[in-house]
Structure prediction request, 255 residues.
Amino acid sequence: MITAHQNYSDSSSKAGITVDHSYVSVGIKGSKEAPIPDAPSVDKIKANDTKISGKATMNNTVTVTLPNGEQYTGKADQNGNYTITVPAQKVGEQVKVTQTSAQGKESAATTATVESNEKPVINANPKTIQVGDTFDPLAGVTASDKEDGNLTSKIQVMSNNVNPAVSGVYSVSYSVTDSDGNKASKSVQITVQSLNGSIDVNTFYLGKDSWLNGKFNGDIAKVGLEVNGKKHQVVNVSGTSYQYYAKDKNFKFTR
Prediction:
């Protein structure tokens, strides 16, 4: 602000002219420049997301710049939250987000990289058990995904009609959901076999033979070996004959 005041008098007399200049005063009132806002925060962006969200200053305009140069804008609400709709993005692409104040001051950009958003994978295989065996539907079943890692503890058994007391073919269904809400499901077949059948063993010569050989019939699906009270590996068999490697087992002569 500038103010000026001037007194001027002109007196004429026989003695001459008198001029009185009083003063000129100048005052300048300072003004404060609007600040530049901070860069906005950006929530994680996953592959195929069509909305980008985060935090900015209330009522500021938020601008999203895609890798191809396209820009999309929106406003931060009274709580500073913003959500802007964009085309689906691909893994590894970089998105830049800025905010602009009402005074036209634009912030620095926040750069966000689009992350993968894969569904989890359930690892469960069909099983065959014998009548009377104990059955745990979660035994040996695992789940994982690229973002969350091990999700085994999150597996849910959606259905399980297995009756270990009765031979037959049953099923178990599993489900798991990751932190992004992606859900995976899988069903596996469980076969319960009866123990009806018989097994024969051919003569095994110590120091000469390596394999136990024999035949079986009925519903037998597995055979095992017990030597001197020690139980060894159980192996799957099919058809009517079997071989079992026994040379490395600790046979001893008894008298």
